[in-house]
Specification:
Radius of gyration: 23 Å
Strand content: 5-15%
Helix content: 40-55%
Order of helices and strands: HHEEHHHHHHHHEHHEH
Largest sheet: 2 strands, parallel
Shape: globular
Number of strands: 4
Length: 341
């Protein structure tokens, strides 16, 4: 093995290393204080069980095991930079986002530790935990105006599955100073929050019913090359894009010689991509990598159609942003990028 510390390797060398070789430790890292903050929040509620945390390839709880996997890249600055470069964002990269995600995973951990999902009332309120997850958890069809679910993580994640509904409700209940009784006063979801409040009062100070020993290496997904990790993640977030309506693109731009400016549409999209992507990601909460792939497809298609920005069109920026936002939102709610005719 190269005697040089792994974090000083050249990028191409680092990508060929297995993530497990990095020997990443939460203890002493920047995220340790955030995990301790979670434990302090639990203590304030009288909950003495502290779920163990371990480096993993994503945020999750192993099924049936009350422990929390935390993305490995959050442990070291070099890996954070690579994640940002390849995926365009860091899930849990800010203190606020980290705490929202770890509170959610703590909800799963408590459900497993105290077998809460087996309770009749749990099933009446949240549904059957045996319900199948969507083939791709990022493509469920939420109802954004539903008040039967709390809103915590992006994209109305509580609506994706009964287990996620409980975890989201637990996270809202645990969040300090949230005043959930007031915020969700007129929501049907208040019944779920009140139930969680009652449940946690009952188990306060009690040890977990289930807390098996487990080997994180069997669950963390880190026995792969860093390059493979990024390839897999890109594939998950990428979409099988359909052909876009040429008529839509010709409304945005033009192929008529008399209406053309000197700016080609594909060049305009490339130069505007950072700003457009930032706005679309902000309003849709879609992954930046997914939007980036969509933009690449638009750049390719406008080049093929030989389109140009229209002369004296000062609204091209806003029109293009609105169009891409429409495509992304349609995909979120219908599973299709094309707008409905």
């Amino acid at each position: 093995m190269d005697p040089k510390p792994w974090f000083r390797l050249k990028e191409n060398e680092l990508l060929e290393r297995r993530i497990s070789e990095f020997d990443l430790q939460i203890q002493g890292s920047g995220i340790q204080t955030l995990i301790e903050r979670l434990y302090a929040e639990l203590d304030q509620r009288g909950l003495t069980f502290h779920p163990a945390c371990f480096p993993a390839d994503e945020w999750f709880c192993p099924v049936g095991i009350p422990a929390i996997g935390i993305p490995f890249y959050l442990i070291h600055s070099r890996l954070r930079r690579l994640e940002q470069k390849f995926m365009l964002e860091l899930e849990g990269g800010t203190k606020t986002d980290f705490m929202k995600l770890i509170r959610h995973e703590a909800g799963h951990a408590f459900s497993y530790a105290y077998q809460l999902q087996k309770k009749t009332r749990w099933r009446q309120l949240f549904g059957s935990p045996s319900k199948d997850y969507p083939d791709d958890p990022t493509t469920y069809r939420p109802k954004p105006y539903s008040r039967s679910y709390v809103v915590h993580l992006d994209n109305w994640y509580a609506q994706s599955h009964p287990d996620e509904d409980f975890a989201e409700t637990f996270a809202v209940w645990l969040t300090p100073n949230l005043k959930w009784k007031r915020k969700f006063k007129n929501w049907r979801a208040i019944k779920k929050l009140e139930y969680v409040d009652q449940l946690m009062t009952k188990i306060a100070g009690k040890p977990p019913l289930v807390n098996p020993k487990f080997n994180p290496k069997q669950h963390n997904g880190l026995q792969i090359k860093l390059k493979t990790y990024f390839d897999r993640k890109k594939k998950i977030y990428a979409e099988s894009y359909p052909d876009f309506y040429d008529a839509d693109l010709k409304l945005l731009f033009t192929d008529h010689p008399d209406e053309r400016s000197h700016v080609r549409a594909n060049q305009f999209l490339k130069s505007s991509e950072p700003k457009i992507m930032r706005y679309v990601a902000y309003w849709t909460k879609e992954k930046k990598y997914t939007i980036s792939e969509l933009m690449k497809d638009l750049v390719y298609r406008t080049k093929e159609l030989n389109l140009y920005v229209r002369k004296d069109d000062l609204d091209t920026d806003s029109k293009t942003t609105a169009y891409i936002t429409t495509l992304v939102m349609n995909h979120l709610f219908t599973g299709k990028f094309k707008r409905q005719k």
